[in-house]
Write a structure and sequence with these properties.
- Helix content is about 35%, strand content about 0%.
- The longest helix is centred in the middle third of the chain and has 17 residues.
- It is extended, with a radius of gyration of 18 Å.
- The protein has about 100 residues and is mainly alpha-helical.
- The protein has two domains: about 50 residues, no CATH class; about 45 residues, no CATH class.
- It is built from three helices and no strands.
Length: about 100
């Protein structure tokens, strides 16, 4: 399904359940590899997907996630989180400059 950019399309999916000791199709590594392949395909196809709970590791991935809202988000983050408090999802986001521009 392809929709115009301004439309919102919601997808509800079931989470896979992995068996910790398995090395087969029900094992964690297989499931993670399968999910990564799906995300890579979507990225190569320019489908404009967004992950609900993303695990991005670069600033470029976060910029792509926020798209045209990146500049506004980045500006507000530096205002409301001037110390750049780290968390698992914000470690690659911009940090505010120290007071006085130092």
């Amino acid at each position: 399904m392809v929709t115009p950019e301004e439309d919102v399309f919601y997808l509800i999916a079931f989470l896979s359940s992995a068996i910790p000791s398995s090395t087969g199709k029900d094992g964690l590594e297989h499931i993670l590899t399968q999910q990564k392949r799906i995300l890579n395909f979507c990225g190569r196809s320019n489908l404009g997907i967004k992950q609900y709970l993303p695990h991005y590791s670069t600033r470029e991935e976060w910029k792509a996630h926020f798209g045209t809202f990146w500049e506004g988000f980045s500006r507000r983050k530096s205002i409301y989180d001037p110390l750049g408090n780290p968390s698992s999802w914000t470690k690659n986001l911009p940090k505010a400059k120290a007071f006085g521009g130092q």
